[in-house]
From TrEMBL:
Residues 56-224 form the FAD-binding PCMH-type domain. This is FAD-binding protein. Residues 1-19 form the signal peptide. PANTHER family: D-ARABINONO-1,4-LACTONE OXIDASE, L-GULONOLACTONE OXIDASE. Pfam families: ALO, FAD_binding_4.
Length: 473
């Protein structure tokens, strides 16, 4: 039986029925009915609630604004009530967006402003979604050098959190920004770059949206390129043993270890040759099938983690690879239909293998009921004050939990492991660190950032409770 057929069968009626009896199996990490739900109750005249993609953040802003120009953006900031927060595609897991005051959607600030064929730079509006950016840049002979594994975010929302893909030779999306325009809470429009208002530039490229609202940015791009992406099932230990070689062999490389299994999914991406052809199909529901299999195995008398590993190994190892080929902006992103919650820390690149091994060992030894794969990626160092990659090459490691299952107990088990390895949390993903802990992780520029923040927003108009917590303001 092929991998896909097997996993689909697992998700089918037989195992689903078995899984129905397994609610208690997940008790160690909470039950889905323990997750606080956000009721969307219709009350005429009352403001509409906002909710993020994964359903763990919500708010009811008193005013929702959608400026269509920089002049309107400045006006909105001048008239805003309460705490002001911008919103892109609502794809952050952390509480960076919620406000009961003014929520500023950036959707109408979208599109290409100008481009330069000589330098391969392009100025774009900050609300441009990544899925629109690819074809738009392609049309003018440019492409971003790297992308995350999905293309839903708005560019403004992406850069303020240092959103990244994988590849030891590539920095985050923020590292491609050479200039930007920031509308401050006091109604100024500041143009900044490494040469002009440099302090604002170093702070604003990764600001967690604390300095104001970015209206436009200039990207340093490359010429368009085609990619071939190969997905394989491999043995986690073998991949980690030769991770340096793997990363050197491919333009982009990442690995997704499967908990309670010796296997991982690897994704190797290279520039495509003329003879590369696609094979196999991407299965956006595969993570759901993994959970069903995990639950079904747990339900069967006498079966446990060893049986789960054996079943996965029998049916998945040795499977042929799946190949996708196309323009870079078509191949980097994947469809994400299964909702989840995520915690990601970036540890120094050299510490990556030890850290991920300790996480896998902890899941196994503490018998945490986790089926969702981990994610393991590399990102090049940069000089952006609050970037997770500031001053050091990074290995970004993520743990996930299904959106209908309480993630808290699982994440609480794993987060101290990241701390032990000097990890810096992804600003847009779940973590529990406060200002004092974060300041210690950014010894070079934490204070510089706070000075710029206070000078641009002395009254703290951009600070919701989460930002107050992380910045100690
Ligand atoms: C399915 C899924 C897959 C993901 N994959 C990856 C991945 O591969 N790599 C990765 O690094 N992350 C990943 N993430 C995390 C996500 O990309 C980031 O949290 C990103 O910041 C979300 O962008 P957004 O446009 O949705 O921003 P939002 O979540 O809407 O906002 C994020 C922050 O940006 C601020 N903001 C928005 N627009 C502006 C603006 N114009 N000016 C100033 N501040 C602004 C907001 O106030 C907020 O503080 C993933 C998330 C999901 C749900």
């Amino acid at each position: 039986m092929k991998r896909r057929t097997f996993l689909q069968a697992a998700a089918g009626a037989g195992m689903t029925a078995a899984a129905a009896g397994t609610a208690g199996l997940l008790a160690g990490c909470g039950r889905s009915d323990a997750v606080p739900q956000s009721p969307v109750q219709f009350v005429p005249g009352r403001a509409m609630p906002w909710m993020n993609w994964s359903g763990n953040q919500s708010c009811t802003p008193a005013w929702r604004a959608a400026p269509a120009s920089e002049a309107e953006l400045v006006d909105v900031l001048a008239r805003a009530r309460g705490v002001v927060r911008a919103v892109g595609a609502s794809h952050s897991f952390s509480a960076v967006v919620p406000t009961d005051g003014t929520l500023v959607a950036t959707d109408l600030l979208s599109g290409l402003v100008s481009h330069d064929p000589a330098t391969l730079r392009a100025e774009i509006l900050a609300g441009t979604r990544m899925h629109a950016l690819g074809p738009m840049l392609h049309g003018v002979g440019q492409s971003v050098p790297n992308m995350p594994d999905m293309d839903y975010p708005a560019m403004g929302g992406a850069i303020v959190n240092s959103v990244h893909g994988t590849g030891q030779r590539f920095g985050s999306m923020s590292s491609c920004v050479t200039a930007l325009t920031l509308a401050t809470p006091s109604g100024q429009l500041i143009d900044c770059s490494a040469e002009r208002n440099a302090e604002v530039f170093h702070a604003a490229r990764t600001s967690v949206g604390a300095l104001g609202i970015i209206s436009r940015m200039t990207l340093q791009n490359v010429a368009p390129f085609r990619l071939v992406e190969t997905t394989r099932i491999e043995t986690t230990e073998e991949v980690l043993d030769e991770i340096t070689k793997r990363c050197a062999m491919h333009r982009n490389f990442e690995c997704m270890p499967l908990p309670h299994s010796s296997l991982c999914v690897t994704i190797a991406t290279d520039e495509a040759g003329p003879h590369d052809t696609p094979t196999g199909e991407d299965d956006p529901q595969a993570v759901k099938s993994l959970r069903t299999l995990w639950q079904a195995v747990g339900w069967m008398p006498g079966m446990g983690e060893a049986a789960y590993d054996k079943l996965l190994t029998t049916f998945m190892a040795g499977e042929g690879s799946q190949v996708r080929v196309g323009q870079s902006y078509e191949v980097f992103p994947h469809v994400r239909v299964v909702r989840f919650r995520e915690m990601e820390y970036t540890v120094p690149a050299d510490a990556g293998p030890a850290c991920v091994r300790e996480i896998l060992r902890t899941i196994r030894e503490r018998r945490l009921p986790i089926a969702f794969p981990l994610e393991y990626r590399y990102v090049k160092a940069d000089d952006i004050w609050l970037s997770m990659f500031e001053g050091r090459d990074g290995c970004s490691i993520s743990v996930h939990q299904y959106g209908d299952t309480d993630h808290r107990a699982y994440f609480a088990e794993i987060e101290p492991i990241f701390w032990k390895y000097g990890g810096r949390p992804h600003w847009g993903k779940i973590h529990t660190l406060d200002a004092a802990r974060l300041a210690a992780l950014y010894p070079r520029h934490w204070k510089d950032f706070q000075e710029v923040r206070r000078s641009l927003d002395p009254q703290g108009r951009m600070l919701n409770p989460h930002l107050k917590h992380i910045f100690g303001a």
